[in-house]
Design brief:
The protein is α/β, with parallel strands linked by helices and 156 residues long. The protein has 2 domains: 8-62, 2,3-Dihydroxybiphenyl 1,2-Dioxygenase, domain 1, CATH 3.10.180; 70-156, 2,3-Dihydroxybiphenyl 1,2-Dioxygenase, domain 1 (Roll). It is built from 5 helices and 8 strands, in the order βαββββαβββααα. It has helices at residues 17-24, 81-92, 118-123, 128-139, 146-154, and strands spanning 9-13, 32-38, 45-52, 55-61, 73-78, 97-98, 103-105, 111-116. Helix 4 runs antiparallel to helix 5 (146-154). The longest helix has 12 residues, at 81-92. It is elongated and about 60 Å long. The protein starts with 8 loop residues before the first strand and ends with a helix.
Length: 156
């Protein structure tokens, strides 16, 4: 069997890996299941290869030895508030949990960062005072609110 991508991010699961991959590929265009490897015809998948928005990923159903943590996350740069809201709502539904500054955990325990493209642009601004105001506003948010960031950035 030949894998399609030379490098992939691998997420370790204790079951439900195929369910997670099938959910993840519904979130963004250019996402798909590429390969499912089973050890037997009636066995659950051991490996699921997929891509999210063209980024190669892999899930390994390896058992309970390792768990997900915030030390690794999937970061999605969103175009606008509508995309930010849609992804946030989908990922926090059915047992997901909000965190701070655009971070969340989905119902499978995987950490995500949902980052509107306006945020890094504001933080990298040549105006340190405006960037600082945007940063301070972000630190008070769970889901990123672009309009509130822009108001803070503009000093309003």
């Amino acid at each position: 069997m030949k894998f399609n991508a030379k490098v992939r991010t691998c997420l370790w699961f204790d079951g439900k890996g195929e369910e997670a991959a099938r959910f993840y590929v519904t979130l963004l265009p250019d996402s798909r299941i590429e390969n499912v490897v089973q050890s037997g015809p009636d066995e659950p998948p051991v490996v699921v290869e997929f891509s999210i928005a063209g980024a190669p990923m892999m899930i390994l159903n390896g058992g309970p030895q390792f768990t997900h943590s915030e030390a690794a996350s999937i970061s999605v740069l969103t175009e606008d508030q509508a995309e930010t809201d849609r992804l946030w709502d989908a990922l926090t539904a059915d047992g997901g949990a909000e965190s701070m500054c655009g971070w969340l955990k989905d119902r499978f325990g995987v950490s995500w960062q949902i980052v509107p493209e306006a945020l890094p642009r504001m933080l990298a601004s040549g105006d340190p005072a405006a960037a600082g105001r945007a940063h301070s506003a972000m630190m008070q948010m769970k889901k990123i609110d672009i309009a509130a960031l822009q108001s803070a950035f503009d000093g309003e």
